Amino acid sequence: MSCIRVFLFLTLAVVSIVEINGLCGRNERFQKCGSSCPPSCANPDPGPCAQICKRGCFCRSGFMRNSKGQCTNTCP
């Protein structure tokens, strides 16, 4: 039983470290509660959006996701 507790503790620790470090790409930052419809090069003004939190990597201010999934400040 104690082995299971240690395993669960270590698993949670690793997940927390990954989230803190973000492991996000260039020009991205990790957010615990980001937009479910962030602007992109294909849709720079997504308009009305449901207020649903989404965890993950989001483009930094002034950047939008392009068709390759990268955050860029120059859209075609």
From TrEMBL:
Classification via SUPFAM superfamilies: Serine protease inhibitors
Pfam families membership: TIL (PF01826)
Gene Ontology molecular functions: peptidase inhibitor activity
Signal peptide (residue range): 1-22
Gene3D superfamilies per record: Laminin
Domain annotation TIL: ranges: 24-73
Keyword Disulfide bond: yes
Entry keyword set: Disulfide bond, Protease inhibitor, Signal
Membrane-spanning parts: none
InterPro entries tied to this protein: Ser_inhib-like_sf, SerProtInhib-TIL_Domain, TIL_dom
Source organism superkingdom: Eukaryota
Family: Belongs to the serine protease inhibitor-like (TIL domain-containing) family.
Stored PANTHER family: GEO11767P1-RELATED, RIDDLE
Name of the protein: Chymotrypsin inhibitor-like
Lineage, broadest ranks: Eukaryota, Metazoa, Ecdysozoa, Arthropoda, Hexapoda
Gene from which this protein is expressed: LOC105264121
